[in-house]
Amino acid sequence: MCMPHTAGTPARQSMKANAAVITSRENSWLKRFRAALSGERGEDGMVGVEGVRLVEAALGSRLSVEALLVSESGARHLTRVAPLLAADVPVLRTSDKLFAGVADTQTPQGIAALVRPRMATIETLMAGTPLLVALVGVQDPGNVGTIVRAAEAFGATGAATCPSDGIGTADPFGPKALRASAGSALRLPIVIGISPAILLTQLRIFRVKVYAAVAAEDSKIQGMEASSHLLRPWDVDWQGPAAILIGNEGSGLPADLVRAANARVYIPQAAATAPVGIESLNAAMAASVLLYEAQRQRNTTGQGHT
User: Fold this and answer.
1) Above 80 in pLDDT, residue 3?
2) CATH code assigned at 111
3) What is the pTM of this model?
């Protein structure tokens, strides 16, 4: 780890020694940053993070960082990130105009990094008393990022993304999802693109109980009685190994996954006070409520995760 970034320190000298000035839009580094910051995942698996808070989160997570890119105005952020920046990471400098051409945001902060995220497995999510959330066909990047952020905040051991009937889940390392997660996606173990059938099989092997999040009006699933294993969040015993399935924003979870779960869980809402009542909670809100209840029970019994 570098020493604090002050005049004359090794950190300042290292930055100067490693700095390269980029003046061409066709520079290969800029092309890589442009692709990564737009959400493209190259063969090397690198993702782009933009903004001082996300860059700081990436460096603080001790992930592999290939390069740091700063604009003229963004150079002011180097003092903040210097204590976390390894001496061998190249610091690339460019103009504000060229940086704006690779940035994904409308008002870029002038600092970005190429980062290799951790590739988790189901086994890595089984630490302690597992609590994980599986996103099945959740398409909105904002929902994906918010769910990942809630999962970290409420002590989940990890998350998994799954396709659903040909509908994929948004990449948690995409630019919008990363911003919505506020960096949680860089810290929380996440299994990407696992088949729901394989996920359920592995969860059974580890004796993890699976709870399918459903809307109250979807409680009648073909082949299951409406009163069968339909629970409110506080009726679930979250103290043991548990996984929550969160479905697509519009269609919810596929019926076969709901039937395969140990139980269904729904979140009661206040009665409608107008002819047109409120809609059910969206995917991110529902996941947050369920994860909070799980943490509440675990903390109450002294079994919360650290």
Assistant:
1) no
2) 3.30.1330.30
3) 0.85
Amino acid type, 50: E
**Residue 305 resides in a domain:** no
The region that residue 51 occupies, defined by phi over 0 for left and psi between -120 and 50 for alpha, beta otherwise, is left
Residue 220 Rama label (left phi>0; alpha psi -120 to 50; beta): beta
Which pLDDT tens digit goes with each residue over 32-86?
999 999 988 877 888 999 999 999 999 988 889 999 999 999 999 999 999 999 8
The residue assigned the tokens 């002819």 is: 275
pLDDT for the residue numbered 8: 40
Q: In one letter, which amino acid is 102?
A: V
DSSP codes of every residue in 171-192 = PTTSHHHHHHHTTGGGTS-EE-
DSSP H helical ranges for the chain: 10-18, 28-37, 52-60, 78-81, 96-102, 141-153, 175-181, 196-205, 255-260, 283-300
